[in-house]
């Protein structure tokens, strides 16, 4: 294996370079400022399974680099292999950077471990000394250590550590380091964080106001651009252009020219309106979009669904008390499909959709005038439509126990297949509520005691759900409470979330009241996070949770990986975290927030820079994973914490500037810039090594 690498390896450089560019943003970070990702199968050369910064192609490239080094000593070869594989570590950006200086060798753990180290006790090993003791007199072809001493004149491509450094102390002073709360080091195995140290909550959330409108929904344009769809309660859907971060510009949204006008169909009132919008996973090809709204059958002839209070659920609509002096099931919940393809235009360039329904997906009469949720989402991995439905309301406490009634679709999360539409005869035979089919792997398709559409049950009024863009199996819903507790739930297939037997973690009603439920109380799934009403207001009943997103943008690196949610009335915001990841251990903290002094639209404030948001209706996420708050007073975007004088140790303040017309591509943070330098430097080293030019 000695001598120059063979020319065929030059081809692998291009593959390596392009594949490294394809990683997605995450924290911990890879050396190219992009995200670790979940491996579907373990790597074969590097010892990484689960989350990694390398895919299988990169794993092969590292193996070839290792083989080209021609390390004859087996113990040293094992160490060199592990150091090469550190590039695959989910913390590689930190391992290969000190301050803002990129490195070609990871920070090697020495024996000086901080008392408040965030890393596992393995980091107490003096790995740097081990590297020196094992490899100091071993020749390594095109050694990465030689590049750390580029100022030395080396006669051969084969070098030893002893040729580069006088002694172990010099070597470890140059390449060693300790783990602390702000940094990690490499000890020969994938970095493991200390599970006993829960990260401190961010110091605050900084916002800028970029729009004045009041909206219930925001959906990033499926084409990946800087555009997004917004919808309001009245029934309008708008297409908007989101300004670059730091541009000082406002959102470009023309309310006089809606993308889709459904106001003739939508009945808008306190808890009625256009409740959800969703775009087909193949929208760019097929132009299919979906709207969830409420209608009034006394106003619109298309409002003709079956009543949710029926004999199947032991409910007689003629005996339902009216909560607004209206007939039972006068108001209905509808999901309808629309299209941009009526004019033959490319969906990605379409500026409007035809208001005529392509098909009615779902229609169901509501027993009362509250608690009907209505959000719709497409699953990121299965492509099915998830439809959130509340318990139907009433006086209080789900008086007809719809949520636990397994033959009722109230108080449920449904999962529908809108790509395979049965015939009318089949729909009637199966008793479906519209033009959809039931996914074959829905949890209760084989249980006649359940409606097959049910994906999860025991919800009161799920208000805003989302899938984590990094971990799509994390399906999170906020569920509005009754008297005491507002909850955040991790939704699983077939899960029962307890209402009305439990309100959050507390008993609400006797289990004997849960008639027609085939699930006993020991099977209930309790919230992962939440808050009591007394935390936000002394007057009970003044709280109502609004679900948000796992924050996956690098704009606020201290917020990364935390789940953001708020309260409709209180104007309070929480950030929750699972620590360690995949442990099931969650904590949440109410966090302060301010409006940036240089906000494109001046914020209405309560005191000094504390924005008066009004009602927090919803959250949104754009294609860059920046998060937005949709409030009564406007549209707010989460921005760099330093713009509000919040401290974030992961944000480099030397490159923070006031908003200007400068494109965001030229105004990225020094944190991202330094990580990109690591990527460039290490890629150049790999290039030269592969070409045999070092």
Name the features:
694 residues, lipoprotein, 23% strand, disordered N terminus, alpha+beta, 5-stranded mixed β-sheet, 36 strands
Description:
The protein is α+β, with helices and mostly antiparallel strands and 694 residues long. 15% of the residues lie in helices and 23% in strands. It has twelve helices and 36 strands. The strands form eleven sheets. It has a five-stranded mixed sheet with strand order 33-9-36-35-34, with no helix packed on it. A five-stranded mixed sheet has the order 14-15-17-18-16, with no helix packed on it. A four-stranded antiparallel sheet has the order 10-11-12-13, with no helix packed on it. A hairpin with a 6-residue loop joins strand 19 and strand 20. Helix 1 runs antiparallel to helix 12. The relative contact order is 0.12. The model is unreliable at 1-26, 112-117, 654-681 and 690-694 (pLDDT under 50).
